[in-house]
Specification:
This protein has 408 residues and is an alpha+beta fold. Helices cover 51% and strands 10% of the residues. The strands form 3 sheets. A 5-stranded mixed sheet has the order 1-2-3-4-5. The chain is elongated. The mean pLDDT is 86.
């Protein structure tokens, strides 16, 4: 790392050299200005720890909040701690965290420029301020224990928001690790603590009453996102994955043939997939196309398409506030609900496998993988039309569609 005569002008304009760079000061030994690729500047003091003789680093401020002159003064003070046999990190941690609360740590963590650069920063802040600060915000950082974090996540599990509880736990764990790295804490009190729940979807299938409540309540529940409303409905109608639906582009659609042709690059298994479109699906797609205009995506977001993560977060927030009026559900539960509905209507498993693009079903064994090349296009269309008719009956409160009967 370069050693130069630091000046205020240099500190204000310094840029990293091939990644994060420490510029060492010629005037005060051990003092360095650390510049990251994101432009964040902080002051570090490098030394050999009196405890074990290993090289160590203590953060002593950020630039320009801490001026060059002040940083030199702090570095000289830190050197005095080393000469006295004390580790500056422990001294600074004690000073920084004395009286500091979890709420204050949340503020410091979110104010870090490297956090501000994260696309997920707004969601992290929402989760911490909604779930953590009201419950343990007044807990002193030095007194933080695992039971405090469990108090947060247990309350969320009782509300039935398992996925959100896991994400909050991960947010708190990342924040505490950051506190250790930045010398607010000497050790991590959460080391070895397990997640409160696995962030995976259950085997949830929406009942007919829930489908009706969801479908009819979408305009009110997601009033600010008509795109998400349409994506949710298309997921339920077509039984396709939320990422595939959200990324739909006009080039994939042949409305005259009533088909949606997904290239292999857009499917989970890497194989092209054709989805027959029911009249119900086409009506929603045409609405989206009209709103999107001549754009490259049916659900545009900036220069690309709305991401499945955005859709998932929108669903999560609405679930958490009870806006849907039904028990919490995920986007993948819509796919499971649609396929389960087709099964109840008598659709054969091999046909459902083709609808879902599950090659473990459609290409299982030598016969299906090597000999039978039939794509079941006609059967797929019949299954999706049958399910769309059933959906319209459920949503409209009309008569249910009769299941398919086996030929005798």
């Amino acid at each position: 790392m370069p050693t130069i005569a630091l000046t205020d002008r240099f500190c204000s304009t310094a840029k990293p050299i091939e990644g994060r760079t420490d510029y060492f000061d010629e005037t005060v030994s051990g003092l360095a200005l650390r510049v990251t690729e994101q432009g964040h500047r902080s002051w570090c003091f490098h030394y050999r720890s009196p405890r074990d003789g290993k090289r160590a680093r203590a953060t002593i401020g950020t630039y320009p909040a801490t001026s060059l002159a002040a940083a030199r003064g702090k570095a000289i003070e830190a050197k005095g701690h080393v000469d006295a046999g004390q580790d500056p990190r422990l001294v600074l941690a004690g000073q920084a965290s004395a009286g500091m609360t979890v709420a204050a740590l949340v503020d410091a963590y979110l104010a870090d420029p490297e956090r501000a650069a994260l696309r997920s920063k707004a969601e992290i802040e929402r989760r911490l301020r909604k779930n953590v600060v009201p419950v343990i915000g007044e807990v002193k950082l030095a007194e933080l224990r695992r039971r405090d974090v469990r108090n947060v996540t247990d309350a969320m599990l009782r509300r039935g928001v398992k996925v959100e509880a896991t994400r909050v736990f991960e947010d708190v764990r990342a924040m505490v690790r950051w506190a250790v790295q930045n010398e607010y804490l000497d050790a991590n009190p959460l080391d070895g603590m397990s997640k409160p729940a696995e962030a995976t979807s259950s085997n949830r299938v929406l009942g007919d009453d829930e489908i009706r409540a969801l479908w009819q309540g979408l305009p009110k529940a997601l009033v600010k996102s008509i795109q998400c409303q349409r994506i949710i409905r298309l997921c339920l109608i077509t039984a396709q994955r939320v990422g595939e639906v959200a990324g739909m582009v006009p080039a994939e659609l042949d409305l005259s043939a009533r088909e949606w042709r997904l290239p292999g690059a857009r499917t989970k298994n890497g194989f092209p997939h054709t989805v027959p479109l029911s009249d119900l699906a086409i009506s929603i797609i045409k609405e989206a196309m009209a709103d999107a205009g001549k754009g490259k995506s049916l659900f545009p977001n900036g220069s690309g398409s709305l991401s499945p993560q955005v859709v998932a977060r929108t669903i999560l927030r609405a679930n958490d506030t009870g806006r849907f009026g039904i028990a919490p559900w995920s986007a993948h539960d819509l796919r499971r609900t649609a396929l389960t509905g087709m099964a109840r209507l008598g659709v054969a498993p091999i046909v459902m496998g083709h609808v879902a693009n599950h090659r473990t079903t459609t290409r299982a064994g030598v016969t299906l993988s090597a000999y039978s090349q039939y794509a079941y296009d006609k059967e797929k269309r019949h299954a999706l039309d049958l399910w769309a008719d059933q959906l319209k009956a459920i949503v409209g409160g009309g008569a249910a569609v009769l299941p398919m009967r086996k030929r005798r």
